[in-house]
Design brief:
The chain has a five-stranded antiparallel beta sheet with strand order 1-2-3-5-4. About 60% of the residues lie in helices and about 10% in strands. The two termini are about 30 Å apart. Helix 10 packs antiparallel against helix 11.
Length: about 260
């Protein structure tokens, strides 16, 4: 679940099958006066929009029951709850949840229509905040994907080490030392320091230097790991590989810096 704040109102969002559903119950707090979701649902324009939405996205929608409900809209006596509407029409765009995080939720398309019923200003700001939330999520997903790429290449890299640098019958401690040494070849080539030196310089930080690297550094690191695997397979000594990888790191980072953000788009 996620939350956005619109006009001092916290609004909950949760996913159903990768679609975002927004709390109408939370949004209702922004409307002046004593109103309920049922007041909005009994409106003919509301029903027409929900019916259209369901016809596009819900192959199981019960048009017969919906037509009966719609024909009663506008009558003073007409009133229908979200639960009744969903049960009779098999609607998927609006639903009522019970429990700790209960309330009435609607698919974002329908929720934005509800926001307009509250006020045009509220609709404007909730759309704006929702777009900001999605942009932040995309950035986090991009970072995670690039971090995963670095991890995958790290496994490729360590596999090459095990095939070419680790002799038979080494102790586990010796093997771990060789892996740590090879990891520091990349650290030295790109960051100019070993993992131990970074920890000594940053005792207040958790994790390692790669956790605090910029995206462009992780891209370069991913390339260096692949190149180092090739050089290891070719039998190049470690000291020569370090010098070559450092030269490549300088070239790649210079290119990325000079190109600005265009290479990352």
């Amino acid at each position: 679940m996620a939350k956005i704040t619109v006009k001092d109102v916290d609004v909950t969002i949760f996913k159903i099958n990768q679609d975002d559903y927004i709390s109408l119950t939370d949004m209702l707090k922004a409307k002046d006066g004593d109103f309920f979701v049922t007041d909005w649902l009994r409106n003919r324009n509301t029903l027409e929009y929900i019916g259209l939405w369901e016809s596009v996205y819900n192959p199981g929608f019960n048009y017969g029951e919906f037509a009966i409900i719609k024909s009663q809209s506008g009558l003073n006596r007409f009133k229908i709850s979200v639960n009744e509407f969903a049960a009779r029409t098999r609607a998927i765009g609006i639903l009522a949840k019970t429990g700790k995080y209960g309330g009435t939720f609607a698919h974002k398309d329908i929720a934005f229509k509800f926001a307009n019923w509250i006020s045009v200003e509220f609709e404007f700001y909730i759309v704006k905040e929702y777009q900001r939330l999605k942009a932040d999520e995309n950035k986090r997903n991009e970072w995670s994907a690039k971090r995963d790429l670095a991890k995958i290449n790290y496994h490729i890299h360590t596999s090459a080490i095990s095939r070419n640098l680790i002799p038979a019958r080494l102790t586990k401690q010796q093997i771990n030392y060789i892996y740590a040494s090879e990891a520091d070849v990349l650290n030295m080539a790109l960051f100019g320091m070993t993992a131990k030196e970074w920890r000594e310089q940053n005792p207040e930080l958790q994790g390692n230097m790669r956790d605090y690297a910029e995206i462009k550094q992780l891209i370069c690191l991913s390339n260096l790991e692949n190149l180092n695997s090739v050089l290891i397979n070719d039998g190049m000594p470690q000291n020569e590989r370090l010098e070559k990888l450092n030269q490549i790191a300088i070239q790649q980072m210079t290119l990325i810096e000079n190109a600005g953000t265009k290479l990352l788009e």
